[in-house]
């Protein structure tokens, strides 16, 4: 997705005022917020890592259930 912002110099407008007008247009279009928001976006976790994490969670759950049955720990319902 691309958002274009254009400004043209009018008559006796100074360069500083042209840059100021351009900056306001960019802020109004929301481009800066969109770019800043995407800076820290994490990549999706790989299929392998999700699988390993799920297997570890299932193994831990199995261990806890065994300890509950043996009466070594109390359930947290």
UniProtKB/TrEMBL annotation:
It comes from the Bacteria. This is 30S ribosomal protein S21. It comes from Candidatus Taylorbacteria bacterium RIFCSPHIGHO2_02_FULL_43_32b. The lineage of its organism: Bacteria, Candidatus Tayloriibacteriota.
